[in-house]
Design brief:
Two copies of one chain form a homodimer. Chain A has six helices and 15 strands. By secondary structure, chain A is α+β, with helices and mostly antiparallel strands. The longest helix of chain A is centred in the first third of the chain and has 17 residues. Chains A and B meet through helix 4 and helix 5 of A and helix 4 and helix 5 of B.
Chain lengths: ~300, ~300
């Protein structure tokens, strides 16, 4: 039996980066005290969700991974607590900018960077303005507690990502996220749960089809962009699923929370073998997947 | 507005092929009377689920598509009722055998054959003994009422199938199925819903990730194989989902039933556009999908 305990956190973010970092650290410590081996903090937790508007000044928020003070801080925290930390950050590299995650192992070593592959662009989510499409490919890290794959937010909508990660050996898939409902004006924000149910269903499907647990960490709170007159209410609803697509733990839509779940990775491995699906894949028939418009 | 109404049927099957055909026809007529434009009947409805055991004599159940009396009968029925019928049949072609579906349009014309791509082999589901892996690739048919894609049973577990069908233009995905719990001896059959919940969750995930409704038609009843001393209790639980992964209609586990749901295909098309996911796919990063073991 290889037991693993994973936590997802959710919190609101202000313009005060030090406050956000303190808040994230407090939640990570709470998760570790509860037995977590891996703690997932939401996407871009250090700042408000700045892609709500296209503003050149926001590029100034990015830092190179090398010498990044928050990554250094998180390395110390991971080592002190003995936990794996996938840390979302706004990365500057050369002339370009990525939406990245640094995976820090439980001894504080940096295992490597994943750069968000799929970049959204919707009203209030102007990520194509800031982030170049990631060039790392999908990566799986052999951490102290198990092999994990990370997709970042929009990546979670693409079955190709989860499938690729599990084919590469991921035993658990983690999605740091910042997603909610954007409205102009704010008064038009509604609380229709249909949107986040769809969002959850897509990832629950990845769990079921690939027979691995899925962990999603989303932000909460309403963030306003005065210049544009817009606001985003983030959904929260962070969750942890089993490997058949059932939610085991779920946070609410507005509360700072830590959710935690244990798994037996050996049992999960046996389940994947017994399902026999990977045995029967037929890659020679999948050429359409390598097209955009279906014309292989 | 392009409205479409789809039905899924579920029924038990005996060794009397004429009875099975009569039963299927009765359910198709009931669906058509209820307004269905497309009626999905379960996999291999003409016979018991013969792959429960490996028996050479069962190859004798197969027929070529050309001149197949049941397909001829179904063409007449489709024309009379003005409904699209994807008809599952055990196909003999040349020296080999396929698990196939003939798609019959609402005027009785044959649009073509899809041959099951993914062939299972589990205790009680010895399909690799009977069926060669399908050689048609994934196909989408432009029927009188909309573009449909069909996957056959085991295909439903593979996100590659649903994705390929929607990339090729499918507005609706249909899965004729024969799945249940196999036990030796029969007394050990239990009613744990976990298995069919997993089965449903995988397909609901396809619906959510590809933003199309999914329709599954499964058989019911317990079928015994005296020679092997085994039995399979089929799950039923046929269902129709929306395009966000929510079940809209669901049959129970043991009753002969017709479930029916209407959709607006234009609204579904707009929803897919607004989700923007297809725009952001990155096929150049999906090379792992074309491998079996993840070593691209």
């Amino acid at each position: 039996m290889r037991s693993i305990t994973v936590s997802a956190t959710q919190m609101g973010c202000s313009v005060a980066q030090e406050d956000n970092l303190e808040r994230a650290e407090r939640l990570i410590r709470r998760a570790a005290a509860g037995g977590a081996n891996i703690v997932l903090v939401q996407e871009l937790f250090l700042t408000p969700y700045f892609p709500q508007t296209e503003d050149y000044s926001h590029f100034g928020l990015a830092r190179p991974a090398e010498g990044h003070p928050v990554l250094s801080h998180m390395r110390g925290l991971a080592k002190e607590l003995g936990v794996v930390l996938p840390v979302s950050f706004f990365e500057k590299s050369g002339q370009v900018y990525f939406n990245s995650v640094m995976v820090i192992d439980a001894d504080g070593t940096q295992l490597g960077i994943y750069r968000k592959t799929h970049i959204p662009d919707d009203p209030g989510y102007y990520e194509k303005f800031y982030f170049s499409p990631g060039d790392t490919g999908f990566r799986v890290w052999d951490t102290a507690f198990g092999k994990i794959g990370v997709g970042i937010c929009w990546d979670q909508w693409f079955p190709e990502v989860a499938r690729s990660l599990v084919l590469k050996g991921a035993e658990l898939i983690l999605y740091p996220t910042a997603i909610g409902t954007c409205a102009v004006p704010e008064a038009e924000l509604d609380d229709d749960p249909a949107d986040y149910v769809h969002w959850q269903n897509v990832m629950l499907g990845h769990a079921a089809a690939n027979m691995v647990p899925v962990v999603a960490s989303n932000r909460i709170g309403t963030e306003r962009c005065d210049a544009a007159g817009t606001a985003i209410r983030f959904w929260g609803a962070s969750f942890i699923s089993d490997s058949t697509g059932r939610k085991l733990k779920e946070a609410d839509n507005s509360t700072e929370q830590v959710i935690t779940q244990s798994f037996d990775l050996d049992e999960l491995r046996d389940f994947r073998v017994e399902c026999c699906c990977f045995r029967d894949r037929r890659p020679e028939r999948y050429e359409t997947l390598l097209t955009l418009d279906g014309n292989a």
